[in-house]
Amino acid sequence: MYKKKNIIQQNDHIIIPKSTLRRFVDDKTQRIYCLKLSDSDKITITNHYPKSFHTEPNFYNPEFDDIVKRYETLIGKWYKTIMDAINNTTIEFLITNRSDELKQDIIELITIQFHRSVLADKKLLTQYIEQGKKRYESSSAHFFRSGRIPQDFLINKQSLFNNNIDQVRYCSQNILGQPNEAIKKTYKEFIPYICYIPNEIDSTFLLTPQHFVPNDEFARFILSPRLALVLYKENFSRRFIYVGGISRNYR
Q: Which domain of life is it from (predicted)?
């Protein structure tokens, strides 16, 4: 059964990890600059310090905070591993020998960042909770008819109705670290690539509020202004794409 823990006051980054934000810091001001698009008639640029951008005290319950930190650590490991390989000219060897691992991790990173985006959107979160209630009611009826109730189902039920926790927060954050079948199905046949923009090119990747850019043709997970993990439908001759010789931002 879930036991309430002592809460340590901390500012949780709701979607984008602080480590990622710091890679987009302006060297002079030590701030990040953002397009504010909430009002289409008045698009503005705001600036923030990475430490405090889009944070909320104790946004994540303790047990789910551990899941978030594990994936944020995975982002940092891939960034360091890839940059070391680029600097040591072993990048093709890296992506060739760790292609399956890279693809799986890209899908998992996209999944948790998508779920974090859902938690940050009240409308999407409400839809998720309502869908979860319907699934729970359907499963309950099935188990009671069969006469056999799985132990993990009972544990989840106890947590669901535990008066010591915030039910909405607990139920919604249960999606963290869980697979998303729609995402897995969409990118099942896609191929992993690494895209890199060298320093001499006056252009960068755009960091979106969700940390990644998805569509039916590709999914791009941004690691830094010049480095991105990508899933493409096409099977290109090289898995490491060196972005150069362009006159506009590559996005």
A: Bacteria
